[in-house]
Structure formats: structure tokens, C-alpha cells
């Protein structure tokens, strides 16, 4: 089906002038520079999905009793569009985000957006905003699809109305000059997700609940927080917004198994695939904080890294915990970590072949 037919472009009357955009793209950082348009669609129980468009990006007007403001019925996604070395414009695995968005919607009792509409909304927006994709190395257009409950009602029930939107943000390399190793705080007081809860859904509420632990990490001089399981408070789960991997001295990899307390990262899935392509053994198994400390000390564990769309792969150099701090390897970026990172980035930027058909070509 024709994209324009689903998301017709209602172009802004006052686009950002060339020079202003060029200036913004010099050093965009992350999540501060926004493009001129957004994708939008409305849902109501009576009409289903309707009024789809690529429209000028503008503030929303909602009633103070708008459901999402009170009960946080909200889900989101994050994916990137890249400008390839060959001039192509692509998105990385958008249908995987579309599927995950439906899973999140199901958990939050929200309507399921058809996968084609999700992908088409992203394609149409990227197509309209292609000039906002930075040309600098490591630059991309970060897409943020999200859905909010928009009924004006204070009763506690699934909303009857929803707004789906996609906004786009020009972003630079997450870390300038590659990927320095970060330090992480293993929170033994706060948990992120409990069995039966919303940990496997990408919802804003999970992030709201993680902020105090993240703030604690910063206060203790760490960059990020890593959460332990909520039942035994022993097993490593994930960071606030990134999955985690461990590299062993026999060359194997391990990552915590997916469950209803771990978000199924698309970067995680892609790295498992790339590692297995290389013949590397990847185990999806539980790994305890105590074991991690012991293995780091004995040298059995040689590297660790976190992964997610925003920063792709981030080496972990130090772990701090009230039960004792430890260093991973030499404390710097690990070899396998950086080589997997390179492989994935090369595919994402069309610098290497795409054997798994992960790129969705827009132009
Ligand atoms: C989004 C997210 C990730 C990473 O998922 P990607 O698809 O790789 O970006 C990991 N953990 C949490 C909690 C997340 O919200």
C-alpha cells in the first residue's frame, strides 16, 4: 500500500531554515534537536485508527484530566534511521520495533497498532525529514514512536481514546570518540521489574521507577545503574534502558534470559545473531552478582558490556555495589565488545553487507 495514502504529508508553513538546521546538526547531542514534523494517528473505540498524517510538530493540547497524566498508560519505542556511506537512507529492523510495540500495548491494555502502520509512520516521517539525518560519523535520526491514553476521565480503566505519534531527533555519536568503558552501580535496594509486572513492556512507568536508582548511581560516581532480580536480589537483569552481556575467557558470551522482567532488546537480539554467525557460543542464562565478582577476580570473566539502540554497545569497566566493588578486565573497553560493536555499526551504516535483511531501505 502507498505510504502517502496512510500518512499524507501536511507540510509545515515555516520549515527550519537551512543555515539554522546546519548549525543544529553540528553538535546535536542526544534528544534535544527535533525535526519539523511528526507522525500522528488517533484511536477511539468507535472509529478505530483514524486521522493519520505527517503533520507539523507542535505542542499537544490535552485536558488536565487526560488519562495518561494520572495513570501513566503510555508505551514507546526507539529506533534509528541512518544515512549510509553509499548515500542510502535506511532504518534498522523497524518491524521488530513494530512487533514489540504491539506486545507493550497488550500489557498496558492499549489498542494494537497494525505493524504496517507503525513501519509506514516511521518511513513517511524519515522520508519527510531526510535532511535532518546528520552526515557526521556516528550521527543518525532517532525515532521515538509512542502512544498515550487520551481520554478525559479520572476513572481507573483502560482509556477509550489514544494518540499515537512519532517524533524524530537528530543525534550525534552517543559518545564522542567511540565507546569509553562506563562504571555501573549494582542497586541492591531498588528493583526495576517484578514477575508479573511490566518489565518486558517498553513503558514510561518503568523508567519513572528506575530514576531514583539511576540518581543514586550518579551520586556514587557511577554512570549507570544495573538492576538485580526482584525475587532473590541476586541475578543480574539489565540496566535502566540497556541489556547486558558477559564475555568469558573461553571466548563465550552470556546474557540474562528473556523473561517478563527483562526487555527484549533488538540490539541484544542482533548481537546474539552476529556472535553466533562468528561461531561464538552465546548462553542465555542467569548470572549472579556474586558470581560476576568472583569471575572478574579469577579472570574467568574478561569483558562485559551493555547494549541498546541509543548507544549501541557500551563497555562496562567497573562495577560498584554495597557488597563490594570490582573491575572488569583492565577496566577499559574489551576486544570482543568493540569488535561486535564495529560489526553491528557497519551493518547499520551500510558499510558492510546486511546478511540478515535488517535494513529497511527508504531511499
Ligand atoms: C529499549 C530498552 C532496551 C534496549 O532495547 P533496544 O531495542 O536494543 O534499543 C533495553 N532495556 C530496556 C529497559 C529498554 O527500555
CATH class of the largest domain: Alpha Beta
Question: Could you say how many structural domains there are in total?
Answer: 2
- Fold-level CATH name of the largest domain: D-amino Acid Aminotransferase, Chain A, domain 1
Strand percentage, roughly? 25-35%
| Rounded Rg | 21 Å
**Main pleated sheet:** 9 strands, antiparallel
Report a brief summary of the structure.
This protein is an alpha+beta fold and 363 residues long. The chain folds into 2 domains: 3-171, D-amino Acid Aminotransferase, Chain A, domain 1, CATH 3.30.470; 182-348, D-amino Acid Aminotransferase, Chain A, domain 2.
Structure description:
Helix 7 crosses helix 9. With 363 residues, the chain is an alpha+beta fold. Strands 1, 2, 3, 4, 5, 6, 7, 8 and 18 form a 9-stranded antiparallel beta sheet that branches. Strands 9, 10, 11, 12, 13, 14, 15, 16 and 17 form a 9-stranded mixed beta sheet that branches. The model has no long low-confidence stretch (mean pLDDT 96). It has 2 domains: 3-171, 2-Layer Sandwich (D-amino Acid Aminotransferase, Chain A, domain 1); 182-348, D-amino Acid Aminotransferase, subunit A, domain 2 (D-amino Acid Aminotransferase, Chain A, domain 2), CATH 3.20.10.10. Helix 6 links the parallel strand 9 (182-187) and strand 10. It has 9 helices and 18 strands. It is 27% helix and 28% strand. Pyridoxal-5'-phosphate is lined by residues 78, 202, 238, 241-243, 263, 265-268, 308-309.
Amino acid at each position: 500500500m502507498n505510504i502517502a495514502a496512510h500518512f499524507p504529508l501536511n507540510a509545515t508553513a515555516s520549515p527550519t531554515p537551512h543555515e539554522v538546521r546546519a548549525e543544529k546538526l553540528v553538535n546535536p547531542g542526544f534528544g534535544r534537536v527535533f525535526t519539523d514534523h511528526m507522525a500522528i494517528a488517533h484511536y477511539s473505540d468507535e472509529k478505530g485508527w483514524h486521522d493519520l498524517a505527517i503533520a507539523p510538530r507542535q505542542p499537544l493540547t490535552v485536558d488536565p484530566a487526560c488519562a495518561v497524566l494520572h495513570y501513566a498508560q503510555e508505551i514507546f519505542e526507539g529506533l534509528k534511521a541512518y544515512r549510509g556511506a553509499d548515500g542510502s537512507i535506511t532504518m534498522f529492523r523497524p518491524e521488530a520495533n513494530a512487533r514489540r510495540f504491539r506486545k507493550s500495548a497488550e500489557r498496558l491494555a492499549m489498542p494494537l497498532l497494525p505493524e504496517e502502520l507503525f513501519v509506514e509512520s516511521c518511513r513517511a516521517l524519515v522520508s519527510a525529514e531526510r535532511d535532518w539525518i546528520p552526515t557526521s560519523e556516528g550521527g543518525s535520526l532517532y525515532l521515538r514512536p509512542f502512544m498515550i491514553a487520551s481520554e478525559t476521565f479520572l476513572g481507573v480503566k483502560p482509556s477509550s481514546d489514544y494518540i499515537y505519534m512519532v517524533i524524530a531527533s537528530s543525534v550525534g555519536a552517543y559518545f564522542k570518540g567511540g565507546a569509553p568503558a562506563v562504571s555501573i552501580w549494582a542497586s541492591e535496594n531498588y528493583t526495576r521489574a517484578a514477575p508479573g509486572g511490566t518489565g518486558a513492556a517498553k513503558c514510561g512507568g518503568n523508567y519513572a521507577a528506575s530514576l531514583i536508582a539511576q540518581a543514586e548511581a550518579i551520586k556514587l560516581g557511577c554512570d549507570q545503574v544495573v538492576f538485580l532480580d526482584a525475587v532473590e536480589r541476586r541475578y543480574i537483569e539489565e540496566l535502566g534502558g540497556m541489556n547486558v552481556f558477559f564475555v568469558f575467557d573461553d571466548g563465550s558470551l552470556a546474557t540474562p534470559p528473556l523473561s517478563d522482567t527483562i526487555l527484549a532488546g533488538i540490539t541484544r537480539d542482533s548481537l546474539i545473531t552476529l556472535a553466533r554467525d562468528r561461531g561464538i557460543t552465546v548462553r542465555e542464562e542467569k548470572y549472579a552478582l556474586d558470581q560476576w565478582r568472583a569471575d572478574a577476580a579469577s579472570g574467568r570473566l574478561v569483558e562485559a558490556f551493555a547494549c541498546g539502540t541509543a548507544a549501541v554497545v557500551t563497555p562496562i569497566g567497573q562495577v560498584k555495589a554495597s557488597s563490594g566493588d570490582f573491575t572488569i578486565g583492565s577496566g577499559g573497553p574489551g576486544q570482543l565488545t568493540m569488535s561486535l560493536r564495529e560489526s553491528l555499526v557497519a551493518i547499520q551504516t551500510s558499510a558492510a553487507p546486511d546478511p540478515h535483511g535488517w535494513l529497511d531501505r527508504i531511499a
